[in-house]
TrEMBL record:
<dbReference type="InterPro" id="IPR020471">
    <property type="entry name" value="AKR"/>
</dbReference>
<keyword id="KW-0614">Plasmid</keyword>
<dbReference type="InterPro" id="IPR023210">
    <property type="entry name" value="NADP_OxRdtase_dom"/>
</dbReference>
<protein>
    <submittedName>
        <fullName>2,5-diketo-D-gluconic acid reductase</fullName>
    </submittedName>
</protein>
<dbReference type="InterPro" id="IPR036812">
    <property type="entry name" value="NAD(P)_OxRdtase_dom_sf"/>
</dbReference>
<dbReference type="InterPro" id="IPR018170">
    <property type="entry name" value="Aldo/ket_reductase_CS"/>
</dbReference>
<dbReference type="Pfam" id="PF00248">
    <property type="entry name" value="Aldo_ket_red"/>
</dbReference>
<comment type="similarity">
    <text>Belongs to the aldo/keto reductase family.</text>
</comment>
<keyword id="KW-0560">Oxidoreductase</keyword>
<feature type="domain" description="NADP-dependent oxidoreductase">
    <location>
        <begin position="15"/>
        <end position="257"/>
    </location>
</feature>
<feature type="binding site">
    <location>
        <position position="107"/>
    </location>
    <ligand>
        <name>substrate</name>
    </ligand>
</feature>
<dbReference type="GO" id="GO:0016616">
    <property type="term" value="F:oxidoreductase activity, acting on the CH-OH group of donors, NAD or NADP as acceptor"/>
</dbReference>
<feature type="active site" description="Proton donor">
    <location>
        <position position="49"/>
    </location>
</feature>
<keyword id="KW-0521">NADP</keyword>
<feature type="site" description="Lowers pKa of active site Tyr">
    <location>
        <position position="74"/>
    </location>
</feature>
């Protein structure tokens, strides 16, 4: 597995296992165990996924040393403040049954982001968090955080898939030395992505699946990518992407699929901001 080095020297396995929407406790626990068994060493969860405890049990039962794993969790909107981060981090750590977190992210760009960031800087300085970053932030918000704080964000986790490629955003973030991480690389199956003729033709050329083509496309851009499946065979398939390379022609064809719009929702939509602000999880 190839690693990516963050701007503070911490290394992250390039392909990670995402746990979004795996909410049933036993299923989530088993999924994490199977993912680690399949070779994943990078596991991503969040307070709002409501599965941190199950993820922690999976990590504990995996049989793999904690030092070999890279664990991410995210601070939900209601906890995005100085005190909110410090308090909710303790609860997340307890649910995960861990002594430290490898990467802590602000999940959404709302609430008291600057107070939250100050708390995250303190957690990183204490050694209880190895890297800090954001999720779903526009480039200007990332630069703003970097300009007015001691520590610049080390990661920005954003939606990237063949239908929403975000090429300019990716380039801008890389110029700021912020590592880009892709959520929803398969667009959660939208637009019949797994039967897309362009992606299927490319996959057939290398005897690879559409999912493997997409992961490889991201890997070749040095983008961290989170894949998700509860099927162990697909878990193994999604990580088996280091034995082929895409041609320039392949990449040009994939570029043609870009619709330049989110496959889910806009983070600048006022109604979405209000909805997230009202989503109190008590976590």
């Amino acid at each position: 597995m190839k690693n990516i080095k963050l701007n503070n020297g911490v290394e992250v396995p390039l392909v990670g296992f995402g746990t979004f929407q795996i909410t049933e406790p036993l299923e989530a626990e088993k999924a994490v165990i199977n993912a680690i068994k399949s070779g994943y060493r990078h596991i991503d969860t969040a307070q709002s996924y409501m599965n941190e405890e199950a993820v922690g049990k999976g990590i504990s039962k995996s049989g793999v040393a904690r030092s070999e794993l890279f664990i991410t969790t995210k601070i939900w909107v209601e906890n995005v403040s100085y005190k909110g981060v410090l308090d909710s981090f303790e609860r997340s750590l307890k649910r995960l049954d861990l002594e430290y977190i490898d990467l802590l992210l602000i999940h959404q760009p709302y609430n008291d982001v600057y107070g939250a960031w100050k708390a995250m800087e303190e957690l990183q300085e204490s050694g209880r968090v190895r890297a800090i970053g954001v999720s779903n932030f526009s480039v200007d918000r990332v630069v703003d955080l970097a300009a007015f704080n001691k520590v610049a964000p080390q990661v920005n986790q954003i939606e990237i898939n063949p239908f929403h490629q975000q090429t300019e955003t990716i380039e801008a973030l890389k110029n700021e030395k912020v590592v880009v991480e892709a959520w929803a690389p398969f667009a959660e199956g939208k637009n019949n992505i797994f039967s897309n003729p362009i992606l299927k033709d490319i996959g057939d050329k290398y005897n690879k699946s559409v999912a493997q083509v997409i992961v490889r496309w991201l890997v070749e851009q040095d983008i961290l990518v989170l894949t998700k499946s509860v099927n162990i065979n697909r878990m193994k398939e999604n990580i088996d992407v280091f034995d082929f390379s895409l041609s320039t022609e392949d990449k040009e064809k994939i570029a043609e699929l870009d619709l330049s719009t989110s496959q889910f929702f806009s983070h600048s939509d006022p109604e979405m901001v209000k909805w997230m602000a009202s989503r109190k999880l008590g976590i």
